[in-house]
Write a structure and sequence with these properties.
Rossmann fold, single chain, six-stranded mixed sheet, about 20% strand
């Protein structure tokens, strides 16, 4: 029996930005596959390029971005689509929950109207959309949804705004949900509630999930697969429990040690500037196991790991 094609397949993605300091290679040789119903985590430190890679899926990068490669969704290359075509997919087949919901919602439009707008795109009447928005607010844990639907984003806390974003995603009934650092800046209790809510949404919709995070605990709760990223490149992929238990790439090994709850072990050195990444392996200046080969040969992904040794 032929294996079904993945829902999302990113091939040889490269993203560069011009700057006064030179060309910034934010994403390089990026390959990722997410099957239908899969929950995958893109894991890495801040600034490694994971959010830029995710935004390229929906053509949300500025015009100055130079993008090469393919982003296949249902075997359709999203990078080839016209703006009107990508808008038909954005917020419908693919929905995204941003790290800072306050900056993504319309400040002069009630949250109920913003949810209703998504529902009306599916052919429902204004009244049906209004009722639907209140139901979705209730389902995502917003109390007194009839009253809250008439309120504006500035009247909500950070945790409640994230619930609104999840309600909008739920209204779209997407096949793929992208969650970009959805628990950042939330207190621990609210973090747990948001994680459980995202779990409920993807399970209810039978949707695939792409989680962007630096938090190993959040990744463990939501995902079965992981792709670890360093300095614009994916360096290791595999089942999450296997990668976390027995990481093979030196960076991922070091990353696991930083989350040792009994002892804090920072990674020595600093990530390289993306205007002039080091030759060979991008991690070799910080790698305790680096050999001469590591500074010469650019490693390729082989059997789920990018390491020349």
């Amino acid at each position: 029996m032929k294996n079904p094609s993945p829902l999302l397949e990113i091939k040889d993605l490269s993203i560069k930005f011009p700057s006064e300091a030179g060309v910034v290679s934010v994403v390089d040789d990026f390959n990722l596959s997410i099957g239908r119903f899969d929950h995958c985590c893109l894991l890495g430190e801040s600034g490694c390029g994971k959010t830029v890679a995710a935004l390229s899926i929906l053509n949300l990068l500025p015009p100055s971005a130079v993008i090469e490669g393919e982003v296949l969704f249902n075997n359709r290359n999203l990078l080839d689509l016209e703006p009107a075509e990508i808008r038909q997919i954005r917020g419908k087949d693919i929905a995204i929950i941003f790290e800072t919901p306050a900056s993504c919602l319309n400040p002069v439009m009630s949250v109920g109207d913003q949810i209703s707008e998504v529902i009306r795109r599916q052919g429902f009447t204004r009244k049906q959309a209004r009722n639907g928005s209140e139901e979705l607010l209730a389902r995502t844990g917003v109390s007194d949804p009839k009253k809250r639907a008439r309120q504006f984003p500035h009247q909500f806390s950070g945790g409640m705004l994230q619930r609104v974003m999840i309600a909008i995603a739920l209204a779209a009934k997407p096949k793929l949900l992208i969650a970009d650092e959805p628990t950042t800046a939330l207190d621990p209790t609210v973090q747990i509630q948001i994680i459980e809510l995202i779990q409920d949404v993807v399970n209810e919709l039978s949707a695939s999930l792409l989680l962007i995070t630096h938090d190993l605990d959040v990744a463990s709760e939501l995902c079965g697969n992981v792709a670890a990223m360093y300095a614009g490149q994916i360096v290791e992929t595999g089942p999450l429990h296997k990668v976390f238990k027995s990481p093979r790439h030196p960076y991922v090994q070091a990353l696991m040690k930083t989350f040792d709850h009994n002892r804090f072990r920072p990674i020595g050195g600093s990530p390289p500037p993306l205007t002039c990444p080091p030759e060979g392996c991008r991690f070799h200046p910080r790698c305790p196991e680096a050999e001469n080969l590591c500074s010469i040969q650019k490693p390729l992904m082989q059997n789920g790991v990018r390491c020349p040794r």
